[in-house]
């Protein structure tokens, strides 16, 4: 290819990629000093958070009980700075998405510092909940030799650490960052939990790969899922302009002590009652009563539903 032809080709391609219509919905207009959140910085935040929540398992392996306060203190200072910077980036992003940027950079910075402090304050609570998740994973898996193996190896703990931090950020109204954090866990573990989902204590996912938990899910205490489970929505209601209506409850509610086996799919705002069991490869699109069971019968591939041991 001649130099002239190459120059012409590059010029035409640049023109096409810079055309306003082709950029519609795909271009974010930055203001000076208002960068997008950084994926690398969020990875550092997750790494630091795991080291604080599970000292000795993540971060420096030389930590001991005499030095633990020092290590956590050093990590905490860095975590607060990183959180402030990334929350600020998220707030700036959301502000810039509006037609008029309504807040000054100083106002957004002060708000970011407050929100970062709120997250830091909730870390002891997050650790207490994660401790119950570790116990649930250990008690629910005969192959687990000890809790140390669960913390070090099990993808559910990594995914739940991201999720539980992201959920706090989501509840505080921080834009963009919570979803980025849970998508990082999704890439790492194959477990997709929306930060808006509400999940109780002693929650576990065996194996984990392919699990999807939607934004408006409510999951009680002592719930166990297996790989491939989908807690999703049915078709979305549309507004008068044909656009999906946002923010309405559209995902399942799982009450306490529910077990959902591999590759089961539960769709819509249905309630799976306390102590119910959903068998592998089944579809559920209506409520299940407490202590009821639903499973797929191998012989004729029918879904069979039981209520307190009696087929219905």
Structure description:
The chain is of the alpha/beta class. It contains 9 helices and 16 strands. The protein has helices at residues 3-18, 20-23, 39-53, 68-97, 105-121, 123-139, 147-153, 155-171, 177-189, and strands at residues 192-193, 198-199, 204-206, 212-213, 218-219, 224-226, 230-232, 253-254, 259-260, 265-267, 271-272, 277-278, 283-284, 293-297, 302-307, 310-311. The strands form 3 sheets. The protein has a 7-stranded mixed sheet. It has a 5-stranded parallel sheet with strand order 1-4-7-10-13. A 4-stranded parallel sheet has the order 2-5-8-11, with no helix packed on it. A hairpin with a 4-residue loop joins strand 14 and strand 15. Helix 4 packs across helix 5 (105-121) and helix 8 (155-171) packs antiparallel against helix 9 (177-189). The chain is globular.
